[in-house]
Amino acid sequence: MTPSKQQAGPDPRLVRLLGGEELTELRRRLRSHFERTNESVSVRSIQLARLTKSEQDALALLTGQPVRSTSSRRIDLNSVDAALLAAGVARSLRHALEILEGPIVHRATERALHRAQWSAVTTKVDHHPVLSRWLQVPNAAGLLKRLSKQDAAAADQFVRGAHEVLLRLPAAGLTRAQLAAEIFGNAHALDKGQPTATVVLAALRHHDMMQRASAESHIESDSDDSAIDTQVEERARDLWAKSGVLVNELARPALFLNLPVQPGDVPLSPQGEPGYLSLRRLLRTSINWSVDGQRIFVCENPNVVSIAADQLGVDCAPLVCTDGMPAAAQRVLLTQLAKAGAHLVYHGDFDWAGLHIANHVIKTHCASPWRFECSDYLQAVGEGVHATHDLKDSAVAASWDPSLTAAMQRRGIAIAEEAVMAGLLTDLTPA
């Protein structure tokens, strides 16, 4: 066929021969044959059955044979290819189908190419170690395929971007927007829901879970990584914060009272008065904690800090409040104190939410329970404390004392932290 005819579109004779709408199914079946057959394999005939009258007529013209009364026909490809070539409408039947409806791709070859492309995305040796480890987790490829809509090239770009981000971590209080702008030239490239950000967070989450599992020795080093990914996931803001990246850095600052710093350092707040530490300050300012070997008390509710400040003031032992489930600022503060040598002890509400929070704090920050065991609960119930309500919802197991959960189920009474302040104040008063 001449170049001018290729540019002008299919030869009208070819369109009349094979291009009608009534032949759509015939073309599909013929294309399917070539999609299953490698061009290097010598299969030179096609058997077709259940042909319609229009399809029989078209095949008769195509093969130069009379119309048959049967609904099946075997097509000799050599004869058809020669006839099309002689007519000047196509080089072969395969070529004719490609002219009408686009390239025909061998399915097995396409699948092999697809597998090779995805393998290249997940097995490159020059990725950041945290990223490389995550890419070997079974669900990593699935996430990348969803993010890229099955486009291996796009997935490779997301992985390369994640690699560049991880090379910059840990940061020293850098905002997420600034990090994104410096790497990608777009301040929103790492916003929530962006593919590269999703990959970074997945890698960080997996790394964090692996470290936690290794420290606890609950999971053998040669176990399946996919089991680790079933653990509770941390929020994105907390994962960024662990890597020194600020997201909403002024939200939910950490409440504290009388936290000691090294002599000569500027106090974090006036002694005896509650103070706040934002995530921004915790990550951008190097605080020299003077807590090595000290017991740092941790409570769940801000009212406990307020009461302690009113009752004890400057004489109150160091106290930190999680304000419910710890957010990024609270987690960073507790982590810094633990790394500085502090021994954290925790108390919260005697209800299911309180036990859930305590499980997290005790596990994540290696804290000990503070007047938060079965005997403490039963004592409070026996003393008839006033700040109580009925326990509802499903029970939560106390990891540090299973008997506490059983006792709370039997009594069916929840006790607010503020209701047991007398005992807490006793511990917060220096000997």
Describe this structure in words.
The protein is built from 21 helices and twelve strands. It is elongated and about 110 Å long. It has helices at residues 3-8, 12-18, 24-36, 53-63, 77-87, 93-101, 107-123, 129-135, 138-148, 152-167, 176-184, 195-216, 225-228, 236-242, 279-284, 302-311, 328-339, 352-364, 374-382, 402-411, 421-428, and strands at residues 45-48, 73-76, 174-175, 245-246, 254-257, 275-277, 295-299, 319-321, 343-346, 368-369, 388-390, 413-415. Strands 6-5-8-7-9-10 form a six-stranded mixed β-sheet, with helices on both faces. Strands 1-2 form a two-stranded antiparallel ribbon. It folds into three domains: 3-105, no CATH class; 114-245, no CATH class; 248-428, 3-Layer(aba) Sandwich (Dna Topoisomerase Vi A Subunit, Chain: A, domain 2). The protein starts with a helix and ends with a helix. The protein has 431 residues and is of the alpha/beta class.
